[in-house]
Design goal:
The protein is an alpha/beta fold. It has 27 helices and 16 strands. It is globular.
Length: 637
C-alpha cells in the first residue's frame, strides 16, 4: 500500500516538473492509484474514504513573484533551447542573449558568471528601460536607432517590445521612419544583417547561400533597392526595408527570427548622389539591366529555393519596369508574391470592403463603384488587378469589372492611343475615349466614388478636386496611399475638411485624429500592408503552399475586412487597431491555409488531423519570451 507521505512526495514531483508525467502515459490520479494495493479500496491511507485522490489542479496554479530575479517570470516548464555556444559568445549573439536577465543558475550553467553585472533583471525591467529611453527622445529617427540597437543585441526583447507596443513602435521601424533610416543606412551601419547578392557572385550563389547560418528559413524578403517607398533608387541602402518588413513578420506574424532572411540584390544604382558618396556601401556603378539583370535574379531564386525548398520569397520595392515581369515569371511555380503589387492590392481591397460597410452598402456593391486610381505603376495596377478579381469573385464579368476603373498617370487618363507605350497590364485598363484627360477632370466627369493615390506626389489631390467629388458622392472614399508621409497625395485633415467630414479615409502613412467643430473627432486608419503580409506568409508557410494564388489574396483581404468592428466603422476606421495585429495575422493565416487546402496546395497540413485550425496556428506562432538555454553537447558513454 502506498503511504500518504509517499503520495505527497509524488505530487510535489509532478508540480516541480510542470505537469510532466513520469515514465508512464497514465493520468496523475491513475498513476498514483497504480501504486496502491487492493487494500486501499476501503479508503485507508487516502483520507477520502472513497478511493479517490483529491484534485490538485488548484495547487498547480503558479503564483508569479513580483520581487527578486524571478519577478514577473514564470517557473513553469518550458522546453529549453539548445545553443551551440557558451560564455561570452552567447552574450554577443542577439538570438540567444538575454542581457542582464540571465538567472543565477544559467549564469553558472552557461559560464556567464562574472561576465555580467550582479543585478539580475527581468524582461519587464529591461523593456521599461528601453521604453523610457525611446519616449525621452523627440526625433523619430533617434527612436529608430535605439530600437535597432536592441535588435542587434537582444532579438527576444526587441520583438517583445514590438508585440506589446505595436501601435507606438510600428511607425518607428516601418513607414514612415524607415524611409529616413534607409537614406542614412550607410552612415549608421553597425553590424551585418541579411545577405547581399551582386554581379560578382554570379556562378557562386548555390554555394554562398550556405554561408547563412540558419538551415530552416521560412521567409525571405528581397529588394534591389530601385524604388524604395516614394524615395526612388537607394541601392543597397534599401536593406532597411527587408529588415523592417521581417521584424513585422516576427512580431505581427509570429514567425521566429531565425527563420527569416533579409536580402538585397545589389545590381548597382542610378542615384548620382550615391555613385559619388564615399561612404556608400553598395556596388558603386550604374545599374545592371536587360538580360544580365534577370539572370542575376534568376540565379538568386534558384539558389535560395535549392537550399530552402519551401521558402516564401517576398519581392519588395522593385522598380515598376521589372516588378510585374518578375512576378509573372515566378508566381506560377515558386512560392512568392510581390508586396507592392499583391500585398497593397489585398490591403486596399480590405479597406474598400470596409468602406462599403461604413457606407451601409453590401460588399457586393463593389462592382457598382467608379474607382479612379492615381498612379499607373506597379502598385496602382496591382490594386486594380486585385479589386477587379474581387468583382469577378462576386459575379461580375471581366468586362463589367474592368469598366469600373479609371487609371491616371502623369500623362493623364490611360487611353487606347497610348497602347504602344503601355505594359500589357496597363493596356487592360486603357479607355476608348478621353485618353490623356487630367486627374481632376476625370474625377469630375465620371463622378468618382473612390479615389486611390499611389503616385508618390505629395499634395496631388487638390481642394477643388475633392470638393467636386463630394458633390457627386454622399460618402466619397479617399485613400492617399503613398509613403512616406510627405509623399501622401493629401492629409487626413484636408480630406475631412474639404468633404465636410463626409469622406471615408485611409492612408499609407499614419495621421493624427482630426477634430471638426466642437466635439466631432475622426480617426484615420492606416492602409498598411502589414495587415496582410505577415499573416499571408505565416499561412502559406504553415500550409506548405506551392504558390500564392489570387484566391489566397482575396480570402486574406476578406479576413482582414471582417475583423473591423461596427464600432470602429462608426468612428471612421476601416482597419482594426494595430494592437490587434497578431489576432489579425492569425485570422489571415487561417483563411490562407483553408484556401490552400481547398486548392490542394497544402503539403504540410492534413486537415483531417486538425480539429481546430485557429488553435493550431496560434500554437505555431512565435512568442518572444525568454526560455531556458542549455549548451548543446555531444554525450558519449
Amino acid at each position: 500500500m502506498l503511504s500518504t507521505a509517499r503520495k505527497v512526495m509524488i505530487r510535489r514531483s509532478f508540480a516541480q516538473q510542470g505537469h510532466q508525467r513520469a515514465s508512464t502515459s497514465l493520468p496523475i490520479d491513475s498513476y498514483l492509484r497504480s501504486f496502491s494495493s487492493s487494500d486501499d479500496s476501503n479508503g485507508s491511507g487516502n483520507g477520502s474514504g472513497n478511493g479517490k485522490i483529491s484534485d490538485i489542479s488548484e495547487k498547480l496554479r503558479e503564483k508569479i513573484d513580483t520581487e527578486g530575479e524571478w519577478a514577473y517570470c514564470s517557473r513553469q516548464f518550458m522546453s529549453p533551447l539548445q545553443v551551440p555556444v557558451r560564455g561570452a559568445d552567447i552574450l554577443t549573439s542577439p538570438l540567444y542573449s538575454k542581457g542582464t536577465a540571465f538567472k543565477s543558475g544559467e549564469r553558472d550553467r552557461l559560464r556567464l558568471r562574472g561576465l555580467l553585472p550582479a543585478r539580475r533583471a527581468n524582461m519587464k525591467v529591461q523593456k521599461d528601460r528601453i521604453l523610457n529611453a525611446i519616449r525621452e527622445e523627440e526625433s523619430d529617427i533617434r527612436k529608430n536607432m535605439i530600437l535597432e540597437d536592441v535588435h542587434d543585441r537582444n532579438e527576444t526583447l526587441y520583438h517583445r517590445i514590438l508585440v506589446d507596443h505595436m501601435e507606438e513602435m510600428a511607425p518607428l521601424i516601418y513607414t514612415p521612419t524607415v524611409g529616413q533610416a534607409c537614406k542614412e543606412f550607410g552612415m549608421r551601419f553597425r553590424r551585418p544583417r541579411g545577405m547581399y547578392f551582386t554581379e560578382e557572385d554570379r556562378g557562386h550563389m548555390a554555394a554562398m547561400v550556405y554561408n547563412w547560418p540558419h538551415k530552416d528559413v521560412h521567409v525571405i524578403c528581397v529588394t534591389d533597392g530601385s524604388r524604395i517607398l516614394g524615395l526612388g533608387d537607394l541601392g543597397a541602402n534599401g536593406m532597411g526595408i527587408p529588415i523592417g518588413k521581417l521584424a513585422l513578420y516576427c512580431a505581427a506574424g509570429g514567425i521566429a527570427p531565425h527563420r527569416v532572411l533579409p536580402v538585397v540584390i545589389d545590381a548597382g544604382t542610378d542615384n548620382e548622389e550615391l555613385l559619388n558618396d564615399e561612404f556608400y556601401l553598395g556596388v558603386q556603378k550604374k545599374r545592371t539591366n536587360g538580360a544580365e539583370y534577370f539572370q542575376l535574379v534568376d540565379e538568386f531564386m534558384q539558389a535560395v529555393t535549392h537550399r530552402w525548398p519551401n521558402v516564401l520569397v517576398q519581392f519588395e520595392d522593385f522598380s515598376s519596369d521589372k516588378a510585374q515581369l518578375l512576378l509573372n515569371h515566378y508566381r506560377d511555380d515558386h512560392l512568392c508574391f510581390n508586396d507592392d503589387i499583391q500585398g497593397t492590392g489585398a490591403t486596399t481591397l480590405a479597406g474598400v470592403l470596409g468602406a462599403l460597410r461604413a457606407k451601409g452598402s453590401d460588399v457586393t456593391d463593389l462592382g457598382n463603384q467608379k474607382i479612379v486610381i492615381a498612379g499607373a505603376g506597379s502598385a496602382g495596377i496591382g490594386v486594380a488587378q486585385v479589386l477587379m478579381q474581387a468583382m469577378i469573385e462576386q459575379g461580375r464579368t471581366p468586362e463589367e469589372a474592368k469598366d469600373c476603373f479609371y487609371i491616371v498617370d502623369a500623362g493623364g487618363l490611360l487611353g487606347k492611343e497610348q497602347s504602344a507605350s503601355l505594359s500589357i497590364e496597363q493596356q487592360m485598363y486603357a479607355r476608348e475615349v478621353d485618353g490623356g484627360m487630367p486627374l481632376d477632370e476625370v474625377v469630375k466627369k465620371y463622378k468618382a466614388t473612390m479615389l486611390l493615390g499611389m503616385t508618390g506626389v505629395g499634395g496631388l489631390f487638390k481642394e477643388n478636386m475633392i470638393r467636386n467629388m463630394a458633390k457627386n458622392c454622399e460618402r466619397p472614399v479617399i485613400f492617399p496611399l503613398s509613403n512616406p508621409t510627405i509623399k501622401a497625395e493629401c492629409t487626413a485633415e484636408q480630406a475631412f475638411e474639404w468633404t465636410d467630414g463626409k469622406c471615408i479615409f485611409a492612408s499609407g502613412s499614419p495621421f493624427y485624429p482630426v477634430t471638426m467643430g466642437e466635439d466631432k473627432v475622426f480617426y484615420p486608419t492606416q492602409c498598411n500592408n502589414m495587415y496582410i503580409f505577415p499573416g499571408l506568409g505565416l499561412g502559406a508557410s504553415l500550409a506548405g503552399a506551392k504558390t500564392v494564388s489570387d484566391k489566397m489574396l482575396y480570402v486574406a483581404a476578406e479576413a482582414l475586412a471582417n475583423f473591423v468592428t461596427d464600432d470602429e466603422l462608426e468612428e471612421g476606421k476601416v482597419f482594426p487597431a494595430l494592437n490587434k495585429i497578431r489576432d489579425v495575422s492569425r485570422s489571415v493565416a487561417v483563411a490562407v491555409i483553408d484556401q490552400a487546402i481547398a486548392e490542394g496546395q497544402a503539403t504540410k497540413i492534413d486537415s483531417a488531423k486538425i480539429d481546430d485550425l485557429e488553435a493550431f496556428v496560434n500554437k505555431k506562432m512565435y512568442d518572444p519570451v525568454y526560455v531556458p538555454l542549455v549548451e548543446k553537447r555531444e554525450v558519449t558513454i
